[in-house]
Amino acid sequence: MGASAEMRGGALAPLTVVPQHVAIIMDGNGRWARERGLPRLEGHRAGTANIRRTVEACAEFGIKVLTLYAFSTENWKRPPAEVRGLFALLGEVIDRETEELHRNGAQIRHLGSLADIPESLAARVRHAVEYTRGNSRLVVNVAFNYGGRAEIVHAVQRVIEAGIPADQVTEELLASHLYTASLPDPDLVIRTAGEMRLSNFLLWQAAYAEYWSTPTYWPDFGPEHLHAALYAYGARQRRFGSL
Ligand code: FPP
To answer: Is 237 left (phi over 0), alpha (psi -120 to 50) or beta?
Structure first.
């Protein structure tokens, strides 16, 4: 499906190319809260509220896969109260959004490990993934307790456990053991709040992704910012190492 009448009717320029897979590093929740004199968790809450708007905008633009970086393996270093708060927010998002996402044909996938996650939350994640498994309009990957290096280590462990001989280990084989198995690689990685780092996100998959950064904090990132990223993407020449 193409852009909505509202998007076409606004000042947004038409997009000639739309990436299949967009991945977003949702950064700046803490700064958004601090600038308003609020606790950090209120920034994360506002960031959570922005997820539905972003998923809807992606569907409108015709994006097929959206990956959201919600909690990294490094985020465990934050104060325990913030970690617990982020876990609680994920539970709330799942409870609030799963049915609506399902009705709209979205498939929820989890990238990362559930091993250290409280069982009640892990069960809710597994249920959301199972419940939406048959949907294909838009895949929403939630990277939670995710790290790109840990993902590659996990994939190598699975290859070894499967007894696959070294001479059969190819890039395709390793990719098929990543959390993103069977999904296209991200074409575009967006980072909010002005940082210029990948922060251990999709290290393997983003090898040839285009990168776009905006100073806008994640809670304020709207469809117009997504459009700006997609527009910039359309103007890039992707050469994949050739001339
Ligand atoms: C970065 O902001 C954001 C995160 C570490 C978490 C992203 C989480 C959300 C958008 C809320 C949704 C959460 C879940 C779990 C679904 P930051 O805290 O690093 O911001 P700062 O750099 O301004 O301090």
So the answer is: beta
Q: Give the CATH number, domain containing residue 185.
A: 3.40.1180.10
CA of 242 to the centre of ligand 1 (A): 37
Residues 6+ apart with CB under 8 A from 63: 18, 19, 20, 21, 22, 138
Atom of ligand 1 nearest to the CA of 144: 15
Q: What is the rounded CA–CA span in Å between residue 187 and residue 123?
A: 31
Residue 122 lies in a domain: yes
Q: What would the pLDDT profile of 155-201 be if each residue is shown by its tens digit?
A: 999 999 999 999 999 999 999 999 999 999 999 999 999 999 999 99
What pLDDT, in 10s, does the model give residues 208-238? 999 999 999 999 999 999 999 999 999 987 6
Give every CB contact of residue 207 below 8 A, 6+ residues apart in sequence.
185
